[in-house]
Amino acid sequence: MTSMQIIEPLGHHELFLVIAQLTVLLFVARTLGEAFRSIGQPAVVGELLAGVLLGPSVLGLIAPGIYEALFVVPADQFHLLEVISWLGLIMLLIVTGLETDIDLILNKGRTAIVLSLGGILVPFATGFGLGWVMPTEFIAAPEQRVVFSLFLATAMSISAIPVIAKVLIELDVIRRDIGQLILAAGMVDDTIGWILLATVAGLARTGVFDVRSALTTILSVIVFLGLAFTIGRRITFELIRWVDNVFGSDAAMLSTLMLLALAAGALTQYMGLEAILGAFVVGVLVGQVKRFDYDLRHTFEVITLSIFAPIFFAIAGLRMDVVALLDPTVFGVGLVVLGVACVGKFGGIMGVSPFAGLSRWEGITIGGGMNARGAMEIVVATIGLAAGILTTEMYSIIVAVAIATSLMAPAIMRWSIPKIEMSPDERERIDREAYLQGSFVENITRVLLPTRGGVDTRYAARLLSPLLRDREIELDVLCVSESRDAGGGRAAEIGTRIQRGLVAWLRPTVRESNTAVDSTEADRIFDSVEARLGDQTRQPRRITRERDDSVAETILDEASVGYDLVVLGEAGTGRDPDEPLFSETVDRVIQEAPCPAMIVSAQAATDDVPDDPIDRILLPTIGTMSSRYAAELAFAIAAREDALVEIVYVVDEPRADEQFAGDPDLAQQVGIGEQIVEREAAFGRQLGASVLTTVTTAKTPEVELVEHAVRTDADAIVMGSDLRSISRRAFLGQRVEHVVRNAPCPVAVLSAD
Known about the structure:
Layout: H1 12-38, H2 43-54, H3 59-62, H4 64-71, H5 75-98, H6 102-133, H7 145-157, H8 161-170, H9 177-206, H10 211-246, H11 250-270, H12 275-287, H13 294-318, H14 322-325, H15 328-352, H16 360-370, H17 374-386, H18 392-416, H19 424-437, E1 446-450, H20 455-468, E2 474-481, H21 489-506, E3 511-513, H22 519-530, E4 541-546, H23 551-559, E5 565-569, H24 584-592, E6 597-601, E7 616-620, H25 625-641, E8 644-652, H26 667-686, E9 690-698, H27 701-712, E10 716-721, E11 724-726, E12 729-731, H28 734-742, E13 747-751
Parallel strand pairs: 1-2, 1-5, 2-4, 3-4, 5-6, 7-8, 7-10, 8-9, 10-13
Antiparallel strand pairs: 6-13, 11-12
Helix pairs in contact: 1-2, 1-5, 1-13, 2-13, 5-12, 5-13, 6-7, 6-9, 6-15, 7-9, 7-17, 8-9, 8-18, 9-10, 9-16, 10-11, 10-12, 10-21, 11-12, 15-16, 15-18, 16-18, 17-18, 20-25, 23-24, 25-26, 27-28
């Protein structure tokens, strides 16, 4: 029997040295990065210079003892730094993929494609030509001049989306047409650039360039991309959805992203391509999953750009030989490379701008922006050095070009963008995006609908149907059964959730259960609710849960796992205003729900009403945020049901004992009401809904709202309310409670505290 060889742990001095190296690199990189950011320059320039300052060119000359103690180390020791550097590189490519908006590229269509072709083909051709005539001493493997030329062509084609985006954000033009065109064309450039890079690096690893090797590498790329954007896309979506359903934590989602990227990176590395290709593709795929929202992306981006990316750039700077750049030959070649880079990218964009229907100033802006290489070209240079394509001198030249073009781009764009006028269509689009930026409905990904099969939850499902249609929103229908065994503890609960999550992933429409309930009764309840949903792309998940201490506790426990909206059907306890409006269960869920809650009361309805069309929705408003969220729901329903939304604002007339003399002057209050309803109406029209506005006065607004619903034959009332607690019960306000108790039609109340 062969004994397993025990690998000795990392020695004390080796561990101390790598920690000290990381401490110094991160401190200097972040300090210089923030210093450059404060003067309006890309932080990556400062982070690169940190490596230069700590390398042989500066620290090695000023304090050779410190430099040698820190960085003149055996190869095995330096490889420890390289591992962390590669981890930062992989994370940086994930961030790049997350920021690659496929929909944006498709929306810009022909214009983006024309621009990207000019931004790729011309620089690629000029870069290849430069590589073909480059002096032999600048080529690491002279016998691979074709591979070197292809690599240099790829380096010249890359653009730095992070640098471009930063400048566009600072100038507040990132959502303008010109900003969107730059980003779309840059994303196409970079996507093609990463594929080219993986292909060229794969060719370099074979050691020779021949047609068979080239075709094998290209075929490997095509196969990987084909599988990634078909089977891989589905797996990614379902895995992210499953993790969110089961665990519902940011940590689990970020871990899943990193695991997918590492696995894909390992696969592409094994295929003879670069690990960065797998990481980039995973970033693109995850970026298309709505569940992986802005907050998660921002968290990952902050971790990457504040810790791992600076270390990567600083280590890249360590490899840069500034002294070599001062050599007349190297300096001359560097100027030629810089000139070819600028002329190729800028000239290519300017050459195709007329064919894309762009003005001269638009061409200058896009060419100047896409000329920035920034972090992306440093990534390319690092891979070229590691693959044995570049010499140290050529590596230093490419890094210097990346820095120079990154400093040039902001100046050009700040000069040219103010000269581009905004068209009326562009203004309309920007206004619409501003409306949708803080949208409540558009950010809903998961909805929980507890049900016992009553008419109220069936009508709630009827209202949800148009919201779910054509949206990436998942509905979970929850049925709570009586508990047969209260034991098990937290560990059992987590185990149950994982088991239910696995069932949901493999069979997303089956009934999940952790109890032996009457399946016939449960199916009857689920079927009655699903019948009101109509035809949906994704059928709702059926969840059956044992009752915990109370039904409310069970619902709240389920709602705590990452839902954006809880919808409760509740008929109310009666018309007596002295009684609580809702049952104890609904009352508690409203107060303690970790997300907005919508209560649907269909006490005025019969079993047949939920199937009737919704032609007219009454939307009372008072201009609060809850009213705005309710308005979004109403507009979203109306836009898909071809219904009319009537926005009503009722001015509260003072009582007779509050009037000093004569009729009160309510002109100011009416004017405010008109402003509020017009603002909501403009929002509704932006969302595609038909809108009617009404401003009226009444001594009892709640009575007027009910009577108005009767007069106009409203099919539903949708309203918002700020929750207030009175004597341990949820109080939605006198107006809301009166409307719910007395309305002639179903009422939906959104509480979004």
